Amino acid sequence: MADSPSSTESNPRTLSQDDSGACSGSQGYEQSSQGDAQRIVTTTFDQGNHHTRGQSMYQPSKEITKVFQDPIHGTIELNHVYMKIIDTPEFQRLRNVKQLGTVNFVYAGAVHTRFEHSIGTCYLALRLIRYLKERQKNLGITDEEELCVGLAALCHDLGHGPFSHMFDSLFIPKFKPENYENWSHELGAVKIFDDMVKKYDLKSTFERLGYNLEEFHYHMIKEMIYGPLEMNGDEHYKPSPAIPKPH
Asked: Would you list the DSSP string of 120-173?
């Protein structure tokens, strides 16, 4: 790995610790360096952009960024609002979910995970929406809509289980055959995202960072992950009748 910038030398942690006390410090370093060929790690961070549990040490800003080194896209910068998602146990578990299931038993190098895949997806989605925002100003794309696109891309694989699609197609039919037709990893991602918004009070976090997200914004995020959704009386999601279940 290339030499880290001076800001990292004084505090060599790879992930900041958020309000939830999620993966951070040497633990995060061990996961990235000792995991199954984990290729994407945080290499720099702002000295003021961390705090201990329950004791704020800085004024949050959406301008504070973290830098990731990706083998495909090179340098990826994500601001603090995305790190509030990444530094949660729900997202960190993706480090241990293989993108290609059991393919690495045949092709030994196929060991990349849903963790770096999700960060790369977020990067590409943000490049697209920012390009449209800049080049087609008549669309009136807002900062909140840009955030929705980035969050949907970042969170779209939260619902994956072990071995990715094998979990959907082989495990779920045997473990819960009666629920198989109502299950998909996209639906799992939507439910986990819902839970994270409540569990970590992300609405307040987004507001503090300067984003005014209304309820329709959250619905937009979930529909970008799954497709058109409806709610029944039991507050369970179901696909719109006009849209087939994603496969």
From this structure: HHHHHHHHHHHHHHHH-GGG---HHHHHHHHHHHHHTTTT--TTTHHIIIIIHH
Structural domain includes residue 13: yes
Angle between helices 143-155 and 185-199 in degrees, nearest 10: 120
The conformation of residue 240, written as its DSSP 8-state character, comes to: -
Cβ–Cβ under 8 Å, residues 110 and 116: no
Q: What is the CATH number of the domain that holds 129?
A: 1.10.3210.10
Q: How many domains does the chain have?
A: 1
In terms of residue numbers, what domain contains 216?
A: 6-239
- Is pTM beyond 0.85? Reply is no
Residue 1 domain flag = no
Tell me which residue of 147, 154, 179, 48 sits closest to 92, measured CA to CA.
Answer: 154
The CA distance from 151 to 162, in Å, is: 22
pLDDT digits (tens, 9 = 90+) for 186-221: 888 999 999 999 999 999 999 999 999 999 999 999
The set of catalytic residues is: 185
| Window from 25-39, 63-77, 189-203 with minimum mean pLDDT | 25-39
